[in-house]
Amino acid sequence: MAEPAGSSIDVPRAVRWHDDAVRIIDQTLLPSEYREIDLVEVDEVIEAIRSLRVRGAPAIGIAGAMGLVASLEKHVAGPGSAFRARLAEAAEAIRSARPTAANLAWAVDRVAALADRMSAATNAEVWEAMRREATAILDEDREMCRHIGEHGLTLLHDGSTVLTHCNAGALATGGIGTALAPIYLAAQRGMNVRVLAGETRPLLQGSRLTAWELSRAGVDVTVLTDSAAAAAMARLGVDIVIVGADRIAANGDVANKIGTYGLAIATRHHGLPFYVAAPSSTFDLGLASGAEIPIEERAADEVLRGFGRPTAPDGVAVFGAAFDVTPAELVTGFITERGILRAGEIGELRVR
Predict the structure, then answer these.
(1) For 62-86, what is each residue's pLDDT tens digit?
(2) Do both 120 and 155 map to the same domain?
(3) Do 91 and 197 have their domain in common?
(4) How far is CA 136 from CA 119, 126, 181, 206, in A?
(5) List of E strands, the chain
(6) Pick from 145, 177, 211: which residue ends a domain?
(7) In the predicted model, is pLDDT for residue 6 greater than 70?
(8) Beta bridge pairs of residue 255
(9) For residue 9, is it within any domain?
């Protein structure tokens, strides 16, 4: 488990190259088992994304872009027309694997668009250029995470208590995370920061993943049941709430893991700052508001028997939205790699 470039913090690597395969941590097995798997075929990449073996908006974007490249390697020696057809087919299949996160389509389209611009190049030249582009997306994400961390660090002080939801750490990105990046940098610099991690029903990404990666890095972390967040704000001295995002509309509405909206309401009631940490690639400026963000519906069994044991009666209806949308007016600011923005400043991302 090597560390991201430029970091001395002990964090996992969610996605990376292993020869010409995409190596990921199978996050469905954590925290009881640590296992890495390699992805080459399009179906393997899609299954890993849909099943949440790899998850988190930046990480699935990286995995999708790299997976597109990996799946095409065996087609390089074939006819150019067949290679191009396979590229288009694979790109469309991967980009559609999960609908809510903006980064997946953004990263896959970025690699595919490069190939489109190389119309006169050989298959080998195109493939090598695509591999370099996918690697650049990974490297850029590492840098973006660190810049997000630096900007977010200005919001913390020695002794801060941060409440977060789901997992927006190293397991969700190519680097040290988004919402957790300021916490990792604070720990690196000797600051005492306590984290309250909402367990994040129904698949427990907060307790299984956030608590796992923070505790192994030596960060003080306490797991909360999701329904305890408001009580924690009242009783445990919360200073700030920082969450990640899967897509942010032009007006500042935020799609994030289900439960974020309620958390934002409780945060406002208690007069606390509520920040969203995300790279610029997560902002979808083509969507006017959160009402236009596609919300993924997960299988009912994730609620009814998510870990192999029935937790509700068979046949009962389930509201299986994987994400909710937090209105912009509940967001204090957005921690990006370009600085901390308010909702009215999001349009500046077009020209920076």
Answers:
(1) 999 999 999 999 999 999 999 999 9
(2) no
(3) no
(4) 21, 15, 20, 29
(5) 15-18, 21-25, 36-39, 161-164, 194-198, 220-224, 240-243, 247-249, 254-257, 274-277, 283-284, 323-326, 333-336, 339-341
(6) 145
(7) no
(8) 247, 325
(9) no
Helix/strand/coil percentages in the chain, nearest 5: 45, 15, 40
Q: Which two tokens stand for residue 157?
A: 């002080």
For the segment 197-245, what is each residue's pLDDT rounded down to a tens digit?
999 999 999 999 999 999 999 999 999 999 999 999 999 999 999 999 9
Q: What six digits make up the tokens of 271?
A: 């007069």
List beta partners, residue 323. Answer: 257
Written as one letter, the residue type at 187 is A
Q: Whole domain around residue 62: which residue ranges?
A: 15-145
Q: Where are the beta strands (DSSP E) in 217-345?
A: 220-224, 240-243, 247-249, 254-257, 274-277, 283-284, 323-326, 333-336, 339-341
Catalytic site residues?
246
Phi, psi (deg, nearest 5) at residue 16 = -165, 170
Q: Is 245:276 a contact under the CB 8 Å cutoff?
A: yes
List the structure tokens of 22.
Answer: 């995409």
Nearest to 221 by CA among 213, 211, 230: 211
Contact 213, 12 (CB under 8 A): yes
End-to-end CA distance of the chain: 35
Residue at 325: amino acid letter? V
Instruction: State whether 77 and 23 are in the same domain.
Output: yes
Choosing from 145, 160, 193, the residue where a domain stops is 145
CATH (domain of 119): 1.20.120.420
Does residue 250 sit in the same domain as residue 330?
yes
Instruction: Say if residue 49 is in the same domain as residue 109.
Output: yes
Same domain, 251 and 165: yes
> How many domains is the chain partitioned into structurally?
2
